């Protein structure tokens, strides 16, 4: 990573940012064994194109604020599959249809998952 953050810390920041914008089905995978150029993937689903773009924007903003600079960004205009490359961490934000079609979890099924800790949802009781 280009900052003082570990890969796990960067994944946590990205996951919390995605969750804050309504991202769902978050899965983080340790892909460091099969891939020499990246350590982890975070895969997120958005409800629609606008949501995918909002999630990707929030993830990028929060990681950049934490000192992790974006190396490459693809697919933001279409809002169907946005790929954010931060070097050691790559974030894939999918529209639900593309997530099902490309099924990255199946492709990388032999890679261990990285635990993600998200804030508990706030419940409003009357």
Task: Summarize it.
The protein has helices at residues 7-20, 49-65, 96-102, 104-107; strands at residues 24-30, 40-46, 72-74, 81-85, 89-95, 113-114. With 126 residues, it is α+β, with helices and mostly antiparallel strands.
Note down, in words, how this protein is organized:
The chain has 126 residues and is an alpha+beta fold. It is 33% helix and 25% strand. It has one domain: Beta Polymerase, domain 2 (2-Layer Sandwich), CATH 3.30.460. The chain starts with 6 loop residues before the first helix and ends in a 12-residue tail after the last strand.
**What's the average pLDDT?**
92
N/C terminus separation: 46 Å
Strand order of the largest sheet: 3-4-5-2-1-6
Strand tally, please?
6
Beta-strand percentage? 15-25%
- In total, the number of domains comes to 1
Indicate the radius of gyration in whole angstroms. 14 Å
List keywords for this structure.
126 residues; alpha+beta; 4 helices; ribosomal large subunit binding; NT_sf; cytoplasm
